[in-house]
# Entry
Amino acid sequence: MKWRSSIKLLLLTVITISLMLGGYRPTYAASSWDAALSGIDAMYDGLTAVQTLVKQESLEISALRKKNNDALATINAKLKVIDQATITRLTQESESLQRKHASLLEEYKSLGKQVTAAKKRKDKKTADLLELKRNKLKPAATAASAEIKAKKDALAAAKKAKTAKVKVVKDALTPVQTLKKQITAENKSVAAARKHLSAADKRYKASVKRGDAIVAALELKTVYDQTKAIHTSLAKVYDWEKQISRIITNASAKLPK
# Structure
């Protein structure tokens, strides 16, 4: 922009003259003071425009970030309930079957141990009698074990299916973390710029109170530069938030219908 180049040239002239003269030539000092005053006047419009832009960007970023965070929370809530009704039902049925057949399977297992012990004692009669009892229970015990295993296998398959469905969505959301780290880093730059801006603004106001237009012009230029730096950072952050929004939309489309 032409007016920015003019301001920079004017301020450079003011700085050069002020350094050369050091306040020993009243005529030049007065001229420098007038030039600085004109520079402040010219700079104000640009500064006001950038300040307005920064305020607008801050509001837009806050609104979009809230929208994104709410959308992420909604996705995470939906991920938790994927196939959860099926998994809960299969879990309950599996536990119910285990309770139902617990005494039968325990008895069958106990008879097996008793048969083994009798054979070790060489007590064929007892071993045969126990074997008869055990073999009588074997079909029911085998069927019960198979029923429990089938239910556990179905539960494991349901959990595996859920994990796969969740992974598809989470993989789609992976870039969000990288973008959030970039935003965090850029926000630190914004915070640093705001700190420098605040200090320069205090010095500017102090210079105005002293009637020192030259220093005031230099400090106002610093305020402008830091505000512009904040604007540049906020533009990046807003773009990253928009990227996050698109990623969330894409990930949402991958949720099971």
Confidence is low (pLDDT under 50) at residues 1-29.
